[in-house]
Amino acid sequence: xxxxxxxxxxxxxxxxxxxxxxxxxxxxxxxxxxxxxxxxxxxxxxxxxxxxxxxxxxxxxxxxxxxxxxxxxxxxxxxxxxxxxxxxxxxxxxxxxxxxxxxxxxxxxxxxxxxxxxxxxxxxxxxxxxxxxxxxxxxxxxxxxxxxxxxxxxxxxxxxxxxxxxxxxxxxxxxxxxxxxxxxxxxxxxx
Length: 191
Prior knowledge:
Blueprint: H1 4-33, H2 35-38, E1 42-45, E2 48-52, H3 92-108, E3 131-132, H4 134-148, H5 152-161, E4 163-164, E5 175-177, H6 178-190
Antiparallel strand pairs: 1-2, 3-5, 4-5
């Protein structure tokens, strides 16, 4: 009995610290130092939440830039079911899916070059990618320019404005946030 009492008290103390104090402190510090990130990096426009800067959305219209395919369960870019297709590179199902995506992209983008960027036909491990390389976005410019009746040079400038470069080149390449770029396209239409 003498050994049981300290064990129970230590259990209660550790439960309070790890289950109460630590989560409260980290939540408070997150809200204080990184409020935007801690709350989902949400994009607000005219009092509405339009999406997150860190989670892709399924843009399918001809007048929008399309992101990477999403392999999340139930619906594309479902953050509650984040994950890849788990199909091996040797799986014929993956080959068929990529062939179908390439064919669909060539039909939807007849003015673009025949070499379809790999990231437009392969899903990421999370299925939630929000960005593409500037080259993959530039490949789509002719389709978007035609659908929106804009000059390709104007879209190239918009893509350049939304290109995010890493602080150091060793941290990766430049990317374009597709959600923010498409919202900027919609803002152009309103102006």
